[in-house]
Write a structure and sequence with these properties.
This protein has 290 residues and is of the alpha/beta class. Helix content is 41%, strand content 16%. Residues 2-237 form the Serine hydrolase domain. Residues 253-264 have a biased composition (Basic and acidic residues).
């Protein structure tokens, strides 16, 4: 499996390769996958007071935020209690950011740029997204499924790993972008997913909201016990490697079976593939230090 790796806001392909390095090396050592790294197309300066937080410049975002940004709103959400339902928290975020909504053109351009990267490398069949990159990756998966339904084209992404993620976005009205939330949209991602987050993440609600819109029988979550980070310590990396050693071969075997079934169905003239063709049992893991 080959993953397209999408960094968070104020990141870069180079910096994300460093962030993901220990886990990527562990997975490559186990012979599970390879990686290619991308980044947003909009070069940005880090927010005031965070100049040294995001790593070496240049830094990028997938979204063009020159007409307004929601970073200050996100900072305020760090104080929202985790006891509030994830969907309610996301709706609060959207209301707090009223007037700063990303225009549909900006979001369309961001998704199109990632689809272009996908089209340029036919070997990519998985996504790893961190923070904003997870939101973009989740949205791409939803749109790819919608395109497949409309045109019958083959879906490329078979497995996704979301680190401190956020739910996919959708168009609403003439010029708004809103999160797809479970209590409004239901399940919108049916492929196998692996969700990595920390119980001490100030933005935990967004990761939970993403998990909730993924098919539960195909979704696995892992709590590394830390904050809004890509886990790099040896203990967490080792545990994650072991979990993915169990999950990924099953995913690939299921994909091979699904491809064979689809080919047989097409040859019989029936066409199509349903959700049951993506199958791996959902589980929850949490890191418990020795």
């Amino acid at each position: 499996m080959k993953f397209l790796c999408l960094p968070g806001a104020y990141g870069s392909a180079k910096n994300f390769q460093v962030q993901l390095g220990p886990l990527a090396e562990e997975l490559e050592r186990r012979g599970l996958c390879t990686f290619t790294y991308s980044q947003g197309t909009h070069e940005v300066d880090p927010p005031q007071g965070w100049e040294d937080y995001f790593g070496a410049r240049p830094l990028y975002r997938f979204l063009d935020t020159r007409q307004g940004d929601t970073f200050e709103t996100l900072r305020r959400l760090r104080h929202v209690p985790h006891s509030m339902p994830a969907e309610d928290t996301m709706r609060m975020f959207q209301k707090a950011g009223h007037g700063e909504d990303w225009h549909q053109r900006v979001w369309r351009e961001a998704l199109d740029a990632v689809f272009k990267t996908l089209d340029e490398d036919p070997e990519i069949d998985g996504i790893i997204g961190y923070s904003e990159g997870a939101m973009v990756g989740a949205s791409l998966i939803v749109e790819e499924a919608e395109r497949a339904k409309r045109s019958g084209c083959q879906r490329r992404i078979k497995f996704a790993m979301f680190i401190s993620g956020a739910p996919p976005l959708k168009f609403e009205g003439k010029d708004r972008i809103v999160a797809q939330l479970f209590d409004e949209a239901g399940i919108v991602i049916d492929i196998p997913t692996f969700h990595i987050f920390g119980c001490d993440d100030a933005f935990l609600s967004s990761a939970v909201a993403l998990f909730n819109v993924c098919e539960p029988s195909n979704a696995t979550m892992y709590d590394h016990g830390l904050g809004h980070i890509v886990p790099r310590d040896a203990e967490n990396v080792g545990v994650l490697g072991g979990i993915l050693q169990e999950i990924m071969p099953k995913v690939e075997e299921d994909n091979r079976r699904a491809a064979t079934k689809e080919q047989q169905t097409e040859e019989s003239g029936l066409g199509g593939m349903d959700k049951s063709d993506f199958a791996t049992p959902g589980e929850f893991y949490t890191f418990l230090p020795a």
